[in-house]
Inverse folding.
């Protein structure tokens, strides 16, 4: 077998491989033998038909299988012979069969990059720990109490406040003419009785009206000038100036419950002090986890900057496309138009490529460190990582069962768990640095 290697980049090579006629013939003979052992041909017991007859009967299939096996085995021998660290096969092409039966082809491969590891002890990280204050504890308790809040009918004479619910009747005119006549297709905006809205909200049929309701009382009638925005979703109303007559027909106020004995009992706390201690412990655990995650990310980014090598091209393109897709979806979810995204695509693509390069450098650096320091992930450690993922993502029993069957997802999680373990080992010897700016 003859092998020639041409390097296109530091991580991409083209192998020109030729399997001799004898080598190709041996592979073909092995394939024929396998077919003959399994062939069921009328007039012969299974596996007893003459090889010549088997070749005639299955000529096309034997030729195709033999061609694939010659390429596969020749490629594997070439990689072993040249001691190549192949990351992935990019393409197999230019297959040719010479008159004497020799087979040649070209294999384009991306190689595992050579990673020169930087100094790994004393990696700089920030020295700030997230402190939990009394205000943080109170904020959590206030948030919990609000989550238990309910609406109650207004007390007589109450002035509406932010977050109260008001029931209003409204009718609109444009230059003294009913809005329904001035803009015939805008009936929903022209007049309504019994419409509920939240005081101060940005979301209501008539834009801006809820912000004019604070301080109003049930039974009160007032007039409001409303100008529909130039980019309003209903085109016929864009820029229209309307006068609304509004009557407050009813109201409900948001009532936050007191932190009393009944509520403490419901959450399983013997006293308010016990509840506060529990909330503080949870916040401190979350803060500790957040501090660790932040510093692990700082260690990872150190590796990305310190390990300056070219990632495999095909992997870089895939990672870039995945990240770009995520960026585009994120911006679309935020309401950015397709036209604006098109204008920003080049900038977003550059950002995605930079991030993809960092991600791959981190991955290959982590693999190199794991091998150098002989860091292995135990089964218990992987199970603990997976259980944490299940808790954080709040997966249902059905989703967990589905995950257990998904080998690709499990491999991805195993890789993530291994990466975290390697980074954690580096974090143990990292150097907290005052004023560190990641």
């Amino acid at each position: 077998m003859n092998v020639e290697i041409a390097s296109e980049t530091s991580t991409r090579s083209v192998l020109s491989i030729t399997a001799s006629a004898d080598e190709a013939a041996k592979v073909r003979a092995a394939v024929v033998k396998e077919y003959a052992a399994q062939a069921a041909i009328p007039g012969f017991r299974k596996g007893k038909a003459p090889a010549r007859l088997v070749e005639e009967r299955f000529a096309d299939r034997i030729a195709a299988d033999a061609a694939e096996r010659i390429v596969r085995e020749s490629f594997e021998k070439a990689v072993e012979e040249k001691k190549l660290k192949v990351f992935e096969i990019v393409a197999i092409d230019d297959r040719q069969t010479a008159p004497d039966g020799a087979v040649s082809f070209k294999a384009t491969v991306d190689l595992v990059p050579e990673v020169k590891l930087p100094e790994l002890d004393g990696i700089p990280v920030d020295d700030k720990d997230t402190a939990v204050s009394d205000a943080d504890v109170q904020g959590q308790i206030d948030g919990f109490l609000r989550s238990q809040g309910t609406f109650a009918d207004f007390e007589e004479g109450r002035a509406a406040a932010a977050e109260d619910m008001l029931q209003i009747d409204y009718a609109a005119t444009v230059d003294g003419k009913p809005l329904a006549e001035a803009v015939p297709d805008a009936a929903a905006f022209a007049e309504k009785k019994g419409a509920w809205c939240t005081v101060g909200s940005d979301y209501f049929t008539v834009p801006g009206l809820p912000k004019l309701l604070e301080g109003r009382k049930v039974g009160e009638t007032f007039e409001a000038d409303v100008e529909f925005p130039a980019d309003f979703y209903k085109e016929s109303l864009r820029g229209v100036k309307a006068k609304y007559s509004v009557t407050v027909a009813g109201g409900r106020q948001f009532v936050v419950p007191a932190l009393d004995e009944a509520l403490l009992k419901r959450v399983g706390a013997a006293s308010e002090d016990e509840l506060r201690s529990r909330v503080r412990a949870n916040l401190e655990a979350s803060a500790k986890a957040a501090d660790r995650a932040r510093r692990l990310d700082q260690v990872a980014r150190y590796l990305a900057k310190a390990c300056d090598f070219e990632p495999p091209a095909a992997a870089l393109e895939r990672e870039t496309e995945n990240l770009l897709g995520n960026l585009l979806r994120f911006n679309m979810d935020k309401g950015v138009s397709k036209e604006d995204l098109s204008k920003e695509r080049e900038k977003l693509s550059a950002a995605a490529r930079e991030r993809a390069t960092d991600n791959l450098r981190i991955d290959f650096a982590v693999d190199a460190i794991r091998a150098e320091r002989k860091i292995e992930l135990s089964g218990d450690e992987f199970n603990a990582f997976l259980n944490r993922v299940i808790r954080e993502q709040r997966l249902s029993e059905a989703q967990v069962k589905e995950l257990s069957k998904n080998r690709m997802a499990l491999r991805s999680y195993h890789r993530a768990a291994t990466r975290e373990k390697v980074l954690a080992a580096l974090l143990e010897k990292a150097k907290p640095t005052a004023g560190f700016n990641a």
About this structure: The CA atoms of residues 341 and 347 lie 10 Å apart. Residues 338-373 form the longest helix (36 residues). The chain has a mean pLDDT of 93.
